Amino acid sequence: YWPYRVLDNVHLFHYSNMVRDLKGTISSMAAALDVEIDDAQLAEFTEAASFDSMKRNAEHFVPFSGTDFWKADTNFFASGSNRQWQGKLSVDELAAFDARIAELLPPEEVDWLLNGYG
After folding, report:
1. pLDDT at 88
2. How far apart are CA 50 and CA 46, in angstroms?
3. pLDDT beyond 90 at 7
4. Which residue, 39, 52, 72, 77, is most buried by CB atoms nearer than 10 A?
C-alpha cells in the first residue's frame, strides 16, 4: 500500500504511533473517516483502545478467546511495547535482518516499517 499513501482515501496507521500518541492517532482516524467526535468521545475511545483496557477485556478481543488456545487470554497481549525482539537476537542475526531488509526496501520504507511516523 506504500505507493498509494499519497491518495486521499488511503491512510496508513502504525502501531508505534498509537503507542506514542493513541489519542492523536484515534483523532486522525476519525478525521480520515470524516467522523466527528467530541472531546468526551475521544477520551472514551482512547481509554477503550488503551493497552491496559484491551488486556483487561481480553475475552472480547483475543482470537480464539475462551477456547484454551492461550493459557490465559491475557497472554495474547504481551507487553504493549515495540521491539520486543531486542536482546533476543544475536549480533549476526540483527546484521542479517538489516542486510535483508535493505535489499527489499528503500530506506524511507524501512524507517516507516520499523518506526512509524516520527
Report:
1. 79
2. 6
3. yes
4. 77
Q: How far is Cα 4 from Cα 13, in angstroms, rounded to an integer?
A: 13
Which of these, 80, 64, 83, lies nearest to 72 by C-alpha position? 64
Q: What's the pTM value of the predicted model, to 2 decimals?
A: 0.74
Predicted pLDDT at 81: 56
Give the number of other Cβ atoms within 10 Å of residue 32's Cβ: 13
- 1 Cβ neighbours under 8 A, 6+ residues apart: 10, 12
Residue pair 11/38 in contact by the 8 Å Cβ criterion: no
Q: Within 13 Å, how many C-alpha atoms sit on residue 92's CB side?
A: 0
Task: Select from 45, 71, 49 the least CA-distant residue to 60.
Answer: 49
Residue 17 is which amino acid?
N
